Amino acid sequence: MASPVLACEGLTKRYGERLAVDGVGFHIGAGECYGLLGPNGAGKTTTISMICGLLDSDGGGVRVEDEPVTVRSLRAKGRIGYVPQDIALYLDLGARENLRFFGRLYGLKGAALDERIDAVLAIVGLSDRADERIERYSGGMKRRANIAAGLLHRPALLVLDEPTVGVDPQSRHAILETVRSLADDGMAVLYTTHYMEEAERLCDRLGIIDEGRLIAEGTRRELVANVGQRDRIRIGVAGDAAALAAGCRAIDPELELVVVGDGGIEVLATAGRRLLAPIIQAAETAAIEITGIEVIEPDLEAVFLHLTGKALRD
Ligand SMILES: Nc1ncnc2c1ncn2[C@@H]1O[C@H](COP(=O)(O)OP(=O)(O)O)[C@@H](O)[C@H]1O
Ligand SMILES: [Mg+2]
């Protein structure tokens, strides 16, 4: 495998008595969107602050494109685009003026800077509002301007800290689409969130963080399989639900009936889709009319609950 864009290992940070981050390590490859998913206070911001060289760690290390990142390593930090949770823009200037300011800090100037500003404004969908003062922007537009600033210097690694918190649904959608297409174009993306739907939709791979520790890692599918969560199959029937339940019981001994009610039954099984045909067959044999059938895959919420004994939502 090609060496990863980001490699961090054993990252640790202590605030007084509190161990805010405890031995966190993971890798992100080019073109990969990695989600760091965890509740408020889990240690996401502290972890990425060390990754971006904004905060000294108490242990462990970070490499970006094989170069060590520390608070003092300017070159490696120049390969990272950091989009903080709090808006880091001048509110009395327009997006274009803000980007000109940040671009100069990165050493861009002249026509090259103007071209780059136009390009990043287009990426985040702000081209036609670029000269309005930022203070007039919606929360979502401010976030998008912030993302544009993080992209100016063509980073290899883009790090976004909960970019959709407090953002309207339309901007949230635009932000997720932008991040996905940046990864599809080859950028390595580190995305933190406490919204599991977002992580599921956007990220190729996920690390679940809780109380400073990375407690699980993998694709959504792997995470769900590792904790042994099963699919829920919901079957609506017009006739005798108990008779269908008896029919289902005969299909697979592993299958577990959880609800047998008036309108239908619910069963739990791994790889639930394989059971759709036999269940329909069983209904036909017993002359029971099926009104609906649905396979609900276990989600990350279930995984988080299983791993920590608590809900992810606040
Ligand atoms: N500057 C700080 N001083 C003391 N404690 C902090 C500081 N920053 C964060 N913490 C604590 O470290 C833990 C992790 O915080 P943070 O990384 O901000 O979590 P998240 O971004 O996942 O919400 C929390 O318990 C938080 O209160
Ligand atoms: Mg945070």
Summarize the SSE layout with pairings:
Layout: E1 6-15, E2 18-28, E3 33-37, H1 44-51, E4 59-64, E5 67-68, H2 74-77, E6 80-83, H3 95-105, H4 110-123, H5 139-151, E7 157-161, H6 169-184, E8 188-193, H7 196-202, E9 205-210, E10 213-218, H8 220-226, E11 231-237, H9 241-249, E12 256-260, E13 264-269, H10 276-285, E14 290-296, H11 300-308
Parallel strand pairs: 3-8, 3-9, 6-7, 7-8
Antiparallel strand pairs: 1-2, 1-4, 4-5, 9-10, 11-13, 11-14, 12-13
What does this entry look like structurally?
The strands form 3 sheets. The protein has a 6-stranded mixed β-sheet with strand order 6-7-8-3-9-10, sandwiched between helices. It has a 4-stranded antiparallel β-sheet with strand order 2-1-4-5, with helices on one face. The model has no long low-confidence stretch (mean pLDDT 92). The protein is built from 11 helices and 14 strands. Helix content is 34%, strand content 27%. Strand 1 and strand 2 (18-28) form a beta hairpin. The chain starts with 5 loop residues before the first strand and ends in a 6-residue tail after the last helix. The chain folds into 2 domains: 6-225, P-loop containing nucleotide triphosphate hydrolases (Rossmann fold); 230-297, 2-Layer Sandwich (Alpha-Beta Plaits), CATH 3.30.70. By secondary structure, the chain is of the alpha/beta class. The site of adenosine-5'-diphosphate (ADP) has 11 residues, from strand 2 and helix 1.
